[in-house]
Amino acid sequence: MAAEGYGAASPATATTQDGAKGAAPPNPAASINSPAPAANPEKLTPAQLKAKAKAEKQARRAAAKEAKSAVAAAGQPAQQSGSAGADSKGAAKGKGKQEGQQVPPKGVLVHRPSVSGRRPSIMVVEKDARSGIPECFSHIPMAKRIPTSQAHKDVHPAVLAVGQQMATFALKDSISRLKATLLAFRKVIESYETPKGNSLSRHFVPHVLNPQIEYLTECRPMCFAMGNAIRLLKAKVNKFDINTPEDEAKEGLLEWIDFLINERITLAEYVIARNAAQSINDGDTIVTYGRHRLVEKTLLRARKEGKSFNVTVLDDPYVGEGKELAKVLRHAGIPVLYSPNLGGLRSKVPAASNVFLGGEAIFANGSLHAPSGTADVAMAATNAGAKVIVLCETINFDRERVSVDALTYNEIDPERNTGDCFRLLFDNTHERYITGVITEIEFGGGNSPAQAILALLRKQEDPLIA
């Protein structure tokens, strides 16, 4: 056992810079277990104080090491070793991390230590939603919720609300998204004030409109109807003279948005439903897929006109919206046969008079962009000799791009995306499987080949920009 004080029994002495001998360095064990010695009446030099502090630090390290070894031998955690654990904590104080401590890799669940006897909590690391998507499909976008705190400071509250609704698919089809976007842009224009020294035609688009568009695109990829409307809106803004008063320009934009909603959405719905209902005759058997609002309005209008016909609804098993359409039609007095999946294609499609399908977009080469499963129905109907009629507004037409597959323009379903598989929201139907397209254009009764309509769109959109 070491001596209880500093004395002659010490094996070494401390030497100052002047060569004089001072107090011997303390024994490590004595500095921990024995009481403090009496104060040295002589004042220590700075060199002696430095040597003393260094010796005490070495003593603490040695004591902590001995305590840790003793605890490990007894099989007890170091946290329960009493004063030795306290000394160990004191030895680690002032350091960022203890020696040998490993940092867990990113994405690994980390167990936190128990507090007051409670179960240890788990730090849950959010998994990347796209981590399971193969590299060859990495170009396909997917909707995601963007926290409002991460949005650009210039994004209008109305646009924030629309973006959240799109990300959660509360606004699902292209026309509902388009209408909500235009109404939100209307509020943006109403609250806009041109900064001093600027003009609306030069400042509004890059500094006000573009942040709104970028936020909506981050929430969910922009549909073709939104892209067409935004292109027309920007063209309208650019046509204003730099000296046009702000109030006059804002009033012109608000009137243009109202005109676009009335002409390309509300009135287009009415005309398409009327023209499509004229193609239904008594005794016909109509086959449709899923639930599209234009098809629903068409069937209800034909029934209101007194026509008697049957409807077969083939549903998407992943979505199940066709069941709601079957309930609405049956409530209106229309005989309905419902199939929860595409298993009824072979037996029901050959007996169909017409097959009505709704579209999300039509490309310049006439191909149809529609919910997944539409292409299967169209191909089966064409092979069976039934007419395939697509109902689509002209605002959904893309005059510049073409599509020959379902991988160029598509979206990944965020609700059905796992590490094992994922689902695409849309598919592509080639023009040869489409008999005709009914739009709001009064040409040939509204039923024309897709490519024939493209030539009329240029004449139709000129008055919207003017």
Q: Would you kindly provide a written description of the structure presented here, covering whatever features stand out?
A:
This is Translation initiation factor eIF2B subunit delta. GO terms for molecular function: translation initiation factor activity. It is found in: Cytoplasm, Cytosol. Belongs to the eIF-2B alpha/beta/delta subunits family. By secondary structure, the chain is α/β, with parallel strands linked by helices. Among the domains are: 126 residues, Four Helix Bundle (Hemerythrin (Met), subunit A) (Up-down Bundle), CATH 1.20.120; 187 residues, Translation initiation factor eif-2b, domain 2 (Rossmann fold). Helix content is 42%, strand content 11%. The strands form four sheets. Strands 5-4-3-6-9-13-14 form a seven-stranded mixed beta sheet, sandwiched between helices. It has a three-stranded antiparallel beta sheet with strand order 7-8-12, covered by helices on one side. The longest helix is centred in the middle third of the chain and has 33 residues. The N terminus is likely disordered.
- Write down the secondary-structure element order: HHHEEHHHHHEHEHEHEEEHEEEEEEH
Quickly name the level 1 CATH class of the domain at 279-465. Answer: Alpha Beta
The main sheet comes to: 7 strands, mixed
How much of the polypeptide forms β-strand, as a percent range?
Answer: 5-15%
CATH architecture of the domain at 279-465: 3-Layer(aba) Sandwich
- Termini Cα gap: 102 Å
Determine the fraction of residues in helical runs and give it as a percent range. Answer: 40-55%
CATH superfamily of the domain at 279-465: Translation initiation factor eif-2b, domain 2
Average pLDDT reading? 80
Low-confidence stretches: 1-41, 76-101, 106-125
Helix and strand content put the structural class at: alpha/beta
CATH third-level topology of the domain at 279-465: Rossmann fold
The number of strands is 14
Which of globular, elongated, flat, extended, rod-shaped describes the shape?
A: flat
